[in-house]
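Re: beta-D-galactopyranuronic acid structure - here you go.
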Amino acid sequence: MRRREFLRGGAAAAAFGAAGLGLGPSAFADTKMVFKASDVHPEGYPTVVAVENMGKKLEQATGGRLSIQMFASMQLGGEKEAIEQAQVGAIQLARVSVGPLGPVIDDLNVFNLPFLFRSTAHMEKVIDGPIGQELLDKVTNNPKAGLVGLCWMDAGARNMYDTKKPIKSIADLKGLKVRVMGNPMFVDMMNDLGGNGIAVGYDQVFSALQTGVIDGAENNPPSFYFDNHYQVAKYYTLTEHLIVPEMLVFSKKTWTTLSKADQDLLVKFSREAQLEERALWNKKEEDAMAKMKAAGIQIIPIADKKPFQDAVKPVWDKYGTKYADIIKRIEAVE
Ligand code: GTR
C-alpha cells in the first residue's frame, strides 16, 4: 500500500472506532485490533523480524484479538514520519533510532553524543539496566511526546562511508557532503569532523548518494549493506563514532484505550523482542561484514580514534553539559 493511500484510507480510524466515541477501555475490551507497525528496514532485518514475532505472540495470547501488521521498507516514509504517525495514532508501533527521537524527547539526546559508549557491549549493559528503564519511562511520561517507550533495540556502531575516496584519517573528511540523521547534534558533529553535515531522511539516502547530492553517509554494516547503500558507496571506514540504540515506541493515543492486561502483554512481549532482536542483530552484523567484503567494498580500519574524539569535543560542550549526571552514571557502568 502506498503511503498516501494508507493515510487517506483511515485504516486506524476503522480499527479503533470505539476510541473516537470516548468510551473507556472496558467498553471495547473484546474489540479486534490490528496494530500498524512501521520500520525503514526490509523484511528479514532484525528489528522487523523481532516486531513481527512479537505480533505472533500477541495473536496467540489473545486468540487473534490483537495482532501487528508490519509496514517494512519505508512503505510509510522515513522515521520522522513514523514518529509523527504514532503521535497522532495513525500507526501504533514505530521502531526508530534514538537519533531522530532526540528532537522529540530531549532526555534521549545523551545517547546521541559521539563516542559516549566505550563499545556496543557497554551500550547494551546500559540499555538493559536501570538507565535504560529510566529513559523508556522519560518517553512514556513526557506530556508532549504522545508516545510510550516499549523497549530498546540494538543497532551496533555507526561508521562512515562514501562514494569518492577511502577515508583513512580525519583529514579525508574535509569537504565531503555527508548525510546524517535528522538531529542538529549530528550536523554539528559532522561539521566539527571537517565534513559538511546534511540532515536527510533515511528514505532519501540511497538516491542522494546515487545522484551525488551527498558524497557519503554513516551507518552500521547491516543498514549499509541490506539497504543497498553499498551499491553506490564503495569505501567504508570503521570510525565507530556513534553507538546509538533504537527504540520501539507505541502511540499513546491508542495505548490509553487498551486494558491494563493488554498493556502488560505488550510490555512483556516487547521486552522479549529486545533480547530476540539482539541475537538476530549479532548474526546480521557478521553477515553484513562478510557480504560487504564479498562485494569488494574497501573496509578501512581506524587504529587511532583520538583525532576524531578530539574533534567532536564542541558537540559535548554545546549539548552535553546538561547530561553531566547521567553521563557519569553511564561511564560507571562496567
Ligand atoms: C539505521 C537505523 C534506522 C535509521 C537509519 C538512519 O541504522 O536502524 O532506524 O535511523 O539508521 O540513519 O536514518
